[in-house]
Amino acid sequence: MPADVETFDLLGVHVSVLDLDKAARLIIGMVQKKSRGYVCVAPVSTIVDARRSPGYRDIINKASLVTPDGMPVVWYGRARGFKDVKRTYGPDLMLKLCDVGQAVGLRHFFYGGTPAVCDKVVKFLKAQFPGISIVGTMSPPYMEKAELLSPETAEEINRAEPDIVWVGLGSPKQDYWMSLNQEVLKAPVVVGIGAAFDFHAGIKPQAPLWMQRSGLEWLFRLCSEPQRLWKRYLIGNVLFLWWVLQDLCFKTKKSR
């Protein structure tokens, strides 16, 4: 993790104290220094999965940055005294780096989604950022769990010489994938951004800003995809609140 990044502990996950501008600046710095690392986004669901699995928590904590992707994560950080922490949402981080990266010539590669989704993402980004450098896309076959890239596939990505590889496999799979493949990829930075491909391709709707800012994005997504997401949000959110309350009570007793 970059030396100048503070973190706070949330149920064992070391969340970076960030906002969009700082995250983009740090990632560009990693590219310029050619330091190899990966970036995880951490909404509530990631915190819950990490609490359940020590192995997964270790993968998250080895990331160069762990962004506070959800508002409850931000609120917890602020309650712990880190007033500068702001939501650093994966889809917004992607747009931010595509924008500011134009000035420094960042080279982007997109891994994940279907060929149609990748095409729509590229068209959208080129329309939004005419100076963007997109050096490749790849739509992998469906995988049950994270898999090591074949030498041929890794070489194809490396041959494109990207500065950032954006990985849209969904969590927790994309985090396992980044940990597994960072050594075979030469790109300085690999970033897992969940459903950002689908959002920017217009395949899935994004919650209105007022819902994002009030911590209700989970409700919007649950209503959009109830069969797929009900366990993540209904069970996961209850577990998160229970564990956080336990944690806060323990810290209060310990400080007395």
What does this structure look like?
By secondary structure, the chain is an alpha/beta fold. The protein has one domain. 53% of the residues lie in helices and 15% in strands. It contains 12 helices and 8 strands. The strands form 2 sheets. A 6-stranded parallel beta sheet has the order 4-3-8-7-5-6, with helices on both faces. A hairpin with a 2-residue loop joins strand 1 and strand 2. Helix 2 crosses helix 12 and helix 11 runs antiparallel to helix 12. It is globular. The protein starts with 6 loop residues before the first strand and ends with a helix. The model has no long low-confidence stretch (mean pLDDT 92).
